[in-house]
Amino acid sequence: MADRGPSALSLPEDWPAHPDPILALNRMGSFDWDLDAGLFHMDAQALRVFDLRPDEYDERPESLAVRVPPPEAARLDAVVANAIKDGSENYGTYFRIRCRDGTLRWTHTQGYIRRDATGRPRRVVGIVRDATEELADSAARSLRAAQDEAFRQQTGVVQVISAALAHARSVQDVIDVLKDTHGVRHLGAASLVMGLVEAGRIRLVAEGPAGASVPGTRITRIDEPYPMSEVVRTLSPRFIESPEEFATGYPILWPHLTDLHVTSAAYLPLIAQARPIGAMGLLYDDRRGFSAEERAVLVALGGSIAQSLMRAMLYEQDKDLAQGLQQAMLPRSIPSVRGADIAVRYRSAALGRDIGGDWYDLIPLPGGTSGGGRVGAVIGDVQGHDTHAAAVMGQLRIVLRAYAAEGHTPATVMARASVFLHELDTDRFATCLYAEADLSTGVVQVVRAGHIDPLVRHSDGSCARVTVEGGLPLGLSAEFRRLEYPVATLELDPGHTLLLCTDGLVEQPGTDLDDGMRGLAAVVADGPDDVRDLADRLIQLSEEQGGEDDVALLLLRRCAPGTAPAGGRLRQQVASGDPEALARARHMIRAAVRAWGARDRAYEIELAADELITNALMHTEGPAIVTLRALSGGGRRLRIEVEDSSSALPRRRDAGESRVSGRGLLLVDRLADGWGVEARGGGKAVWCEFRLP
């Protein structure tokens, strides 16, 4: 084949300065960039790729900015600069240009870097081509993949924030979730501000991080020219996509934000129950503009946050109402009692409304003395955790206080309270424990209506449960005479502490009540001596355990030994045919005699009291009520009274040789320093007195 010379398709020596015409056939254009002169020459096909006419281009690279958007130009410059810096001979990349009609078109360029003998770059020659068709399929696939990934990320953001907000029970909880570093990061914002609508104004309640708010905008009017005010007025979100748009739209606000380097912002109205309750602003420092998907996600998040805020606000209102009602039902103050240190505590339930039927009370009783007062201590629990339970509790507390103050025996107080609760015609019942303490003697009489037993901590630090025989919970029967509440008597020595509590302090899900009582006794034994510190420790323990029930607690510590003061009084009911009740009465008398300093006459006193009680039970119907009094005036005396329901007066008579009946009063007459009979309504009281040293 003869040599025809240079072919029309052969490449000249200075390629690609004079490209082959085949480039044009493939919709490729060439360029020659003189780095020293700063000129960027393009052939006609290259100009067509850039959608430029020859008269629109002056061969200066800056003139291409009309077609190459700033983000694309920055990315393209970075590719070229890296190739020049690292000594590469060529580079290639895709970028987008904005056509004359405003649409974006993908373009590809490949350049060859020519250097001089020293390695200094002097020229860049290369090609540019329309890559629209090439990238159409892959771009569509990439776009779908990017949209899917963005949707997953946006869904994840909604799930993370919503999950955190689900645990918010107060407005501050919502604020903490959003202000938290993770919260702001998940939202993709650099800083956040939030305000709540109050009386026609917007009060700023959150900013994160600190300093994100603008001075003077803590409280703003809804009609002021601020973005949060605008979204509250219009109930529509406001997306600010550039610093220029921010400066133009809000010239008063923008100068204060320059230090935050804000590039865009989203302000969202917080709408709940069809009304604006606030507004939130998200400020960004690394982006411009918002896609349709991003806007939708932010609007959805705003709705979720608004609902959480509304729930929190309603919960706080409900909590304030509940706490106010609870405090109104509980005693406003606890009276001081001579001879005792008292501590009371109440903790609301961890779940449900912060209100319940648990209560405590301390009732001053007549007969207190300078050496120690008489006091009734009450702990109880009405069934339920709602306002009805609290209302029933308040009524029950009042009647218990009234019955105790009238001077009824502990068993009678409990029985009458049970009848009262039944007559309220409510479906609630209550458990209760009532302890009547004479701090001059240390004698405590306890009755229990379905409640848990008390505990006593001794002066040596040991603690034990006191088993008290109980009766029915209050409100289960309306027949007063059939309600039996056995009375237990215990002695509270100086330094001993009586602990009354509701079951919320000892019951835990999945645990036995007895185990809970043993655990409580161990905690009390290891606790501080001061009753207030001990009460705080027990409440702290219940909070740490996260109990679902409310807790009421009453601690009574006897401080000083009694000295047989005037006015001391103890009462006990003894039912006919109840040997245990008789034994408890004897125990009460024995403890009082020792406490009041009458050990020398203890046998005489116990024997006389036993005769009076036995006489009343044998010759009358119904129970006998035994009362011990410490009297002054004319010398210190101990008085024993035994009341019964019979009006028939006893007679002292000498028994014959073959008769036993009649010897009781004769024995009392010989043992006591005085005795007598008093009419008491439909019954009577037989009494005797002993002078004390």
In brief, what are we looking at here?
By secondary structure, the protein is of the alpha+beta class.
Task: Give the SSE layout.
Blueprint: H1 22-25, E1 28-34, E2 39-42, H2 44-49, H3 70-85, E3 90-98, E4 104-115, E5 121-130, H4 132-166, H5 171-179, H6 181-187, E6 191-198, E7 201-208, E8 219-221, H7 227-234, E9 238-240, H8 243-249, E10 264-272, E11 275-284, H9 292-329, E12 340-347, E13 357-365, E14 374-382, H10 387-405, H11 410-423, E15 430-438, E16 443-449, E17 455-457, E18 463-465, E19 470-471, E20 488-491, E21 497-501, H12 513-526, H13 531-545, E22 551-558, E23 569-574, H14 579-595, H15 602-619, E24 624-631, E25 637-644, H16 663-671, E26 674-680, E27 683-691
Parallel strand pairs: 16-19
Antiparallel strand pairs: 1-2, 1-5, 3-4, 4-5, 6-7, 6-11, 7-8, 9-10, 10-11, 12-22, 13-14, 14-15, 15-16, 16-20, 17-18, 17-21, 21-22, 23-24, 24-25, 25-27, 26-27
